[in-house]
Amino acid sequence: MLSFFVISVSIIFYHVYSNHLEWKKRKEEETTMMWHKGQPVKFQDSVINTASVPITMIAYKPIPQQGDGPLPPEVKKIVYNGGSLVRFREPETPPVIDQRKLSFNPIKETEEEHEQEEEEEEEESRASAVVPSPFIPEWLLEVPEDLDVLIVERHFEDAYNLIEKTREFLNETQPSTGRESLDVSFVTEMRKKLDTRVDTLTVMLTKELKVTPEKSLQGGLRSARPFIRVLNQLNKASLSCDLFLALCSSILRAQLKRVRRDGPALNYVSSASTVFFTNLSLMTTELQKVAFPGTGECAAAFVVWATREFNLFVSYVIRELFVTQSSLSSLSPCIAAVSTKCDQLTSLGLDLRYLLDGALRGPLTKALKETRDKLTDTIKLRCSEDKWKPFNLNNRQQRDKFLAEFSEAGLTSMTSYLTGDCWLRLSNNTILFTRLYLSLLQDCFQLATSELLYSIEDTLYVVMQHQLKHVDASLRNDQLADEREFIVQNADFILNNLLTLCENKFEQHFQFKSKKLETKEKVEKLCV
């Protein structure tokens, strides 16, 4: 009895399992088309998009417009499958099994769980995958992976070109273009992937341009050109401008550190000025013609950056030059060198001269005042030792050298003061003052700016006034009555030769005459 029961159960299980396998196989081979209000909504038990999977239905009778469910038997179906039209018959209904007979089946529950898991995995895979259109090119599907490879291998320009190519293709296949369009979900997913790769590319380019202590600056701005160009093409002009200016700052500081401090301040400041302004000129040209050509996106930021860097450089120059006991003779060539280099930037559209004049006005005004006080003390000391005796040139060689020196300075009438071969009807004090005053005038011309004009004129006036006071006092001194004629000759030389020459040079340089010449008129009256 027991064996008969076991055999019966085995036979029933065999038939049920065979029917189930046959039904499952038929289900995989056939396609069930579900309808809702006359429109296909299911294809192999999953929602489809007719835009991506074309479906052709041929019916001999009107298709029902209401209710859900399979087509009636009299409606013939043809569905699109892999590029061909395939006719399907109505799926057979799986056999109905008496659940009471299977209630004792020991593997039923496990089998149902396994089928449910398979269905869930299949639904998840269909939900996660984007169903591509049949005309999607193979290269488009591989774009994300190709971009990852190009970015890792640092082929940034190729990566940008591929991004632009993909964007153009996606735009050309939109429904509004009238061409065969892509699936909307596929396009959305592809655009998200492109945006992610653009962000990654931006991060990599920023890393390449960012200055770090371990990174070499030997390549300079030339090595940064491709990175700047790609960032600009990605519409990241603001970011590329900031990185470009930060790189320029690092290059400037590195170049200035290489300038040697050997020798006098003039040599060092001249070398530093050459390095600074040469690099600034190259950076200006790089900005205008290479990095940001034909656009003003970075112009304002560059002017602000150049102003900041120039102020730092000028403050550095001031610390180097304006130290204790710095003479005007040592300052003026350095300032002139910096001013000349600064003026050369004007041809590139960058005028920083007003910043230089403003920064140097205070220190130079103080330097002019200190120079004036030192020279007046020197004049007082020499005047106290003046014996009003003719100056001996010793020999003809010294005489010729003396005449050439003063002739080069503009005093061509010195030969009229010669007596004999080597004697000059001018005192040693007058000769020393002439050299001092001509040197002071030349130094003032090198420092000349509109802000320093008053200080320069005052310095020239005060120094000349002290010398003329000495002449005036000597003419009034009764003890020097015997040397009066000689003193008058020296006064005539100072007034009609030296001072006249200085007036003409002053007017030629500043384009106006000096008004502080009242002392000259007073001394002229004494010489009558």
Summarize the structure in words.
With 528 residues, the protein is mostly helical. It folds into four domains: 2-128, no CATH class; 138-209, no CATH class; 237-351, Methane Monooxygenase Hydroxylase, Chain G, domain 1 (Up-down Bundle), CATH 1.20.58; 363-390 and 425-526, no CATH class. The protein is 63% helix and 5% strand. The strands form three sheets. It has a three-stranded antiparallel sheet with strand order 2-1-3, with no helix packed on it. Helix 4 (143-152) packs parallel to helix 6 (184-209) and helix 12 (353-384) runs parallel beside helix 15. The chain is rod-shaped, with a radius of gyration of 49 Å. Mean pLDDT is 77; it is low at 29-69, 71-93, 95-108 and 127-132.
Provide the fold topology:
Layout: H1 2-29, E1 33-36, E2 39-43, E3 68-70, E4 77-81, E5 84-88, H2 108-128, H3 138-141, H4 143-152, H5 156-172, H6 184-209, H7 220-233, H8 237-257, H9 265-291, H10 299-321, H11 328-344, H12 353-384, E6 391-392, H13 396-409, E7 418-419, E8 423-424, H14 428-447, H15 453-476, H16 484-510, H17 518-526
Antiparallel strand pairs: 1-2, 1-3, 4-5, 6-8, 7-8
Helix pairs in contact: 4-5, 4-6, 5-6, 6-7, 7-8, 7-9, 8-9, 8-10, 9-10, 9-11, 10-12, 11-12, 11-14, 12-14, 12-15, 14-15, 14-16, 15-16, 15-17
